[in-house]
Specification:
39% of the residues lie in helices and 18% in strands. The chain is of the alpha/beta class. The strands form 4 sheets. A 4-stranded mixed β-sheet has the order 1-3-2-7. Strand 4 and strand 5 form a beta hairpin. Helix 3 crosses helix 5 and helix 5 packs antiparallel against helix 6. The relative contact order is 0.13.
Length: 275
Amino acid sequence: MKISTILDHIDSGFIALPEFQRGYVWNRDQVRAFMDSLYRRHPVGSLLVWATRSDEATHRGDGRLAPEVVKLLLDGQQRMTSLYGIVRGKPPRFFDGNEKTFTGLRFHLEREEFAFYSPVYMKDDPLWIDVSAVMREGNDGIGGHLTRLSSRAEHAPKIGVYLGRLSQILGIRDVSLHVEEVTGEDKTIEVVVDIFELADPDTGDPIAIFDLAWEKGLQEGLSDPVALLLDEPPATLALANAHGFRYFTGIDAFKRYVETEILAIREPVAAAASG
């Protein structure tokens, strides 16, 4: 699904954030690295959504949900919130965090690098362009940038190169992301996701929250504790490892684990039971 379509679905309430999800926790380095990957068309992972009835869904924010069916974002909130803030120039309605994290992103047309606005560093260099402005203004905005740059002798020879790079930024809106979907009337919040709060064994105080985790394993008593940790900082991964969780940082790797190990456990168990 194109990024522009996903953002439109957020606006219409067809995609929303479930109430149990945490707020926005990314920092500027993560936003910058994410946008650089999109600009260079590197893989940025897929999204995981839960399709459920709108009248039964509890969601963050005060926006209205689309009628009948809504897709609740189980994984990808940090990425989609960052993109929404940069492309739309404002946070989505379900936002809970520091919007300065994605505000003021700039791109240097010569060095092809992203950085957040710094007046001292950028004010005298017209090659720093406002990424949100490019996204909002579209091709008309690109034309304005090129007109200004072509009036300067030192930049005029590379107008064609700069046009390509501006188009590459604008084209981020058309990048397609794979959307993994959980469906079925039998799917409840308990079936779809187990939110796990990791506590300090000595004090009982919470030290981390895993969005997708199974403390007793996917096959209780037969498999290790497991967690799907996407968009998580290294500190959270280290905590998961230290507390005995086998964790995965990508959906594809997690699916391979389920298919090659968990299903392999279930088949002999089922055969023994029938015997």
